């Protein structure tokens, strides 16, 4: 079992920036994949950015060039730097981790609200 805790959400004006952090209670080196999802009201949860243990990164098209995912292994933390925020980025953002051992385990954080005002 692994617990993920997100911090860094809040209210920001359009064009502003926020940095989300996701800290795990065990080494993130155990995770094959880490990433961020978001869910806006009335919509399905969608992938925002994903980072594999091998270093490959993928972004949802609407955030390319504005969001950056990164990790700090020493701090067991993954980040999502969000710049040039738009009202349509408003959502609850969830941290995600996948651990592949004898079985595949998926972990989710509790979510952090990001609200972008116009």
Question: SSE layout and pairings?
Answer:
Elements: E1 4-7, E2 10-13, E3 18-24, E4 33-39, E5 46-52, E6 57-59, E7 67-72, E8 77-82, E9 91-100, E10 104-108, E11 112-117
Parallel strand pairs: 2-11
Antiparallel strand pairs: 1-3, 3-8, 4-5, 4-9, 5-6, 7-8, 9-10, 9-11
Q: Which key features would you list for this structure?
A:
0% helix, mainly beta, 4-stranded antiparallel β-sheet, globular, 118 residues, single chain
List how many beta strands DSSP finds.
11
Q: How many helices in DSSP terms?
A: 0
Low-pLDDT regions? none
Question: Which series of helices and strands comes N to C?
Answer: EEEEEEEEEEE
Cα separation of the termini: 40 Å
| Radius of gyration based on Cα positions | 14 Å
Residue share in β-strands: over 45%
Query: Quick check: average pLDDT?
Result: 96
Give helix % range.
under 10%
Largest sheet properties: 7 strands, mixed
What's the shape?
A: globular
The class by helix and strand makeup works out as mainly beta
């Amino acid at each position: 079992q692994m617990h993920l805790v997100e911090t860094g959400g809040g209210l920001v004006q359009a064009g502003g920036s926020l940095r989300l952090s996701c800290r795990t209670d065990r080494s993130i080196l155990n995770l094959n994949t880490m990433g961020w999802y978001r869910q806006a009201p009335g919509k399905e949860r969608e992938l925002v950015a994903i980072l594999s243990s091998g270093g490959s990164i993928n972004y949802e098209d609407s955030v390319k060039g504005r969001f950056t995912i990164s990790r700090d292994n020493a701090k067991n933390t993954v980040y999502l730097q969000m710049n040039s925020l738009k009202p349509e980025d408003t959502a609850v953002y969830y941290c995600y981790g996948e651990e592949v051992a004898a079985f595949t385990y998926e972990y989710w954080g509790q979510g952090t609200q990001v609200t972008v005002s116009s």
